[in-house]
Amino acid sequence: MAVDRDHEALSSYPGIVIGDQPPEFIVKKFIAMEPLRHDSQCKGITPAVSPASLATMEPMIRQRIASIMDELPIGEEFDWVDKVSIELTTQMLATLFDFPFEDQSKLICWPDIATSSPDIARDHSVTAEERMAALTQCLETLPVIWNERANKTPSKTCDFITLIAHSPAFKDMDPMEYLGNLILLIVGGNDNARNSITGGVLELNNEPAEFAKLKADHILISNRVSEIIRYQTPLMRMRRLATRTPFLAANKFAKATR
């Protein structure tokens, strides 16, 4: 908590992931900005996931979950992550972005490649060139949607891109900040839900007594959701850059002992 709150001595800039990006391809995003700009931009996109918006989407969410579960094979093994966690997450991301149905697979591809590299995830399956190409494709695709939404009158509950296009907090963004913020929302929407859904199901099956409590008393479910998010963290790590001593000395020690 001390590290997370001291943004001056332990900065999120230029990024929160392990590994530095090429200077010519550093994407700006509000999670790696100073608090004032971070807070204003974060506030600008929250209507998409406000209680009112989620209440409106609840019937659709329940219907999608039911459809996915009904289509699962019975009596044979299947990949839960692929069939359930990724499928539901992608459908909901497409809704939150009002993303073209035929291009929904990109909402899986882009964040997976964006978070796959030897520095970030010890993943050598994606080269730096492939990662750059995917992000470039993302940068070429999203502005087209942006320009369409910029001429759309926003409602109280609308998609992320429309909100960003009309929010004063995002005014005068350069292309890299636009790309960074949208990738941030796509990655967050993928990782948080996908990991929590998967980890929650795994642990409830490993702890049948806890699972039995939920089935016996559905009031416990709301608290269980929060506990699953705490238990199965959606993030591998959060980087901070020490800007002054004594944190600089501690940072050198941490690197030496890693």
Please describe what this structure looks like.
- There is one protein chain.
- The chain is mainly alpha-helical and 258 residues long.
- The protein has a single domain, classed as Cytochrome p450.
- The chain is 62% helix and 2% strand.
- It contains twelve helices and two strands; from the N terminus they run αβααααααααααβα.
- α3 runs antiparallel to α4, α4 packs antiparallel against α9 and α7 packs across α8.
- The two termini are 21 Å apart.
Strand residue content: under 5%
How would you spell out the order of helices and strands? HEHHHHHHHHHHEH
Question: How confident overall, as mean pLDDT?
Answer: 79
CATH architecture field: Orthogonal Bundle
CATH topology name:
Cytochrome p450
Count of spatially separate domains: 1
- Computed structural class: mainly alpha
Number of β-strand runs? 2
Major pleated sheet: 2 strands, antiparallel
Distance from N terminus to C terminus (CA atoms, Å) equals: 21 Å
Shape: globular
Fourth-tier CATH superfamily name: Cytochrome P450
Helix content: 55-70%
Strand arrangement, largest sheet?
A: 1-2
